[in-house]
C-alpha cells in the first residue's frame, strides 16, 4: 500500500513538469514537496537508483523521488520524434488529398523538365517541384546556395561557387532566395514544438546593424543545444529581454527549471517577471554566478556566439534589425548543421524533430510549402 502511494506521488511530481532538474545523464535533482530543498537521484552502474531522501536512505525502498525520475524518463521516451520526410512520390492531390490524379503534361525550362499533375476532384494542377514552383533554377541549385551562405560564404562567393555546378545567378538572386525561403521555413518550423530539456542558457553578443552597435540576445537549451529564441536590442545591460523569455516559454510550451545567464541586471529583471513564482516547486532557479573556468559556466552559449560572430564578419554588418540572416542562422544551427558535441546530430535530432533526407534544406522547404498549400485549401473549402 505504501509502495503504491509512493508511486502515485512520484507520478504527480513527474507530471508537474517543473520539479525535476536534469544535471547530467543519470543524475537528477528532485524538489521536495514539503520543504524548500531538493534531493539527489542517481542511477548506479548496475542500472538501479539511489536517492538522498530519508525514505530511501534509511528504509532502502524505492521512494517517490526515484519514481518521479523514472516516470519522467518514460514520458520523454513515449514522445515520438516528429519526422519531417522528403516529399518525392505524389500519391494524392496536395490541395484536397484526393487520389484521383493523372499526369498532365511536362513543364520545360532551361534547367530541367518538371512533371505536372491534374486532380480530377478539385480540378487543380500541381507539380512535384513542391516549394520551387515557377522558379527558374532547380531545387538543388537553390538549396546549395542556402548551404553555402549559412556555412560562411558571402553572397558573391556563393554565386561564384554555384557556377561550378552550372547555376548562373547574381548575388542579388541568391539574396532573394534567402529572403523567400527563410520566411517560408520559419513559419512552418514555428508550429513544431521541440522536446527541450529543463536547463536553459541566455546570453548576448554584440553586432553591427547598418553601422550601429546592437545586441543579439539568444536563448538556448543546455541539453540539446537547441536555439529556442532570439531578440535584437539597442543596449546591453538595460534592454527589456522579457519578449525573449516569453517567446521561449511559448515556443517550448514550458518554462525552464534552471536558467543560466551572466550577471546582467536585465536578465534578472526579466526572470523575476516571467519565470519567478510564489510556489518554490514551480519556480525557475536563476544561476548568475558563472565563470569560464568554474563548475558553472556558459561555455556552450559562448560557442554559439562564435557561430554568430563568424557569420557577421563575412557580411561586415547587417542591414536591418529584422534581417532574415539571423533567422536563417537559427534554422541552420537547429536543423541542418551537425554538431560534434552532439555526436554528429543536429539540435533538432536531440529535441525529437528528425529531418530526413541528405538535403535537409529541401526537405524542410517541401514540407513548409505543402503546409501553406494545405492551409489555403482548408480556407477555400470552408
Describe the structure.
The protein has 382 residues and is an alpha+beta fold. Among the domains are: 2-78, no CATH class; 199-320, Nucleotidyltransferase, domain 5 (2-Layer Sandwich). It has twelve helices and 14 strands. Strands 11-10-9-12-13 form a five-stranded mixed β-sheet, with helices on both faces. A four-stranded antiparallel β-sheet has the order 1-2-3-4. Strands 6-7-8 form a three-stranded antiparallel β-sheet, with no helix packed on it. Helix 8 (265-274) links the parallel strand 12 and strand 13. It is globular and about 80 Å long.
Strand portion? 15-25%
Figure out the total of helices.
12
Major sheet details? 5 strands, mixed
What's the N-to-C terminus distance?
A: 55 Å
Form type: globular
Rg from alpha-carbon coordinates: 24 Å
Strand order of the largest sheet: 11-10-9-12-13
| CATH topology type of one domain | Nucleotidyltransferase, domain 5
**Overall mean pLDDT:** 86
**Assigned CATH architecture of one domain:** 2-Layer Sandwich
Instruction: Give the number of DSSP strands.
Output: 14
Q: What fraction, in percent, of the residue positions are helical?
A: 25-40%
Amino acid at each position: 500500500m505504501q509502495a503504491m502511494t509512493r508511486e502515485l506521488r512520484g507520478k504527480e511530481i513527474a507530471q508537474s513538469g517543473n520539479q525535476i532538474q536534469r544535471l547530467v545523464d543519470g543524475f537528477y535533482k528532485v524538489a521536495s514537496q514539503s520543504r524548500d530543498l531538493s534531493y539527489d537521484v542517481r542511477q548506479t552502474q548496475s542500472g538501479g537508483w539511489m536517492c538522498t531522501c530519508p525514505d530511501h536512505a534509511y528504509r532502502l525502498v524505492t521512494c517517490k523521488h526515484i519514481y518521479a525520475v523514472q516516470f519522467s524518463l518514460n514520458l520523454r521516451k513515449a514522445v515520438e520524434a516528429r519526422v519531417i520526410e522528403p516529399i518525392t512520390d505524389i500519391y494524392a492531390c496536395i490541395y484536397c488529398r484526393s487520389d484521383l490524379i493523372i499526369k498532365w503534361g511536362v513543364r520545360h525550362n532551361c534547367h530541367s523538365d518538371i512533371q505536372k499533375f491534374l486532380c480530377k476532384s478539385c480540378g487543380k494542377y500541381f507539380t512535384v517541384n513542391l516549394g520551387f514552383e515557377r522558379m527558374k533554377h532547380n531545387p538543388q541549385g537553390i538549396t546549395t546556395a542556402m548551404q553555402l551562405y549559412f556555412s560562411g560564404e558571402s553572397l558573391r562567393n556563393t554565386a561564384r561557387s554555384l557556377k561550378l555546378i552550372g547555376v548562373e545567378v547574381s548575388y542579388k538572386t541568391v539574396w532573394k532566395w534567402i529572403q523567400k525561403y527563410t520566411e517560408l521555413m520559419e513559419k512552418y518550423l514555428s508550429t513544431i514544438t521541440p522536446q527541450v530539456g529543463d536547463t536553459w542558457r541566455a546570453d548576448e553578443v554584440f553586432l553591427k546593424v547598418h553601422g550601429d552597435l546592437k545586441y543579439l540576445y539568444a536563448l538556448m537549451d543546455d541539453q540539446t543545444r537547441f536555439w529556442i529564441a532570439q531578440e535584437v536590442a539597442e543596449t546591453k545591460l538595460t534592454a527589456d529581454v522579457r519578449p525573449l523569455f516569453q517567446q521561449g516559454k511559448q515556443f517550448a510550451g514550458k518554462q525552464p527549471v534552471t536558467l543560466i545567464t551572466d550577471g546582467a541586471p536585465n536578465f534578472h529583471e526579466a526572470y523575476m517577471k516571467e519565470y519567478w513564482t510564489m510556489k518554490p516547486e514551480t519556480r525557475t532557479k536563476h544561476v548568475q554566478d558563472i565563470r569560464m573556468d568554474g563548475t558553472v559556466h556558459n561555455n556552450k552559449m559562448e560557442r554559439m556566439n562564435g557561430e554568430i560572430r563568424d557569420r557577421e564578419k563575412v557580411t561586415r554588418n547587417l542591414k536591418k534589425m529584422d534581417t532574415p540572416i539571423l533567422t536563417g542562422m537559427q534554422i541552420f544551427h537547429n536543423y541542418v548543421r551537425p554538431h560534434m558535441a552532439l555526436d554528429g546530430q543536429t539540435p533538432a535530432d536531440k529535441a525529437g524533430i528528425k529531418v530526413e533526407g541528405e538535403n535537409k534544406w529541401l526537405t524542410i522547404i517541401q514540407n513548409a510549402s505543402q503546409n501553406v498549400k494545405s492551409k489555403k485549401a482548408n480556407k477555400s473549402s470552408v
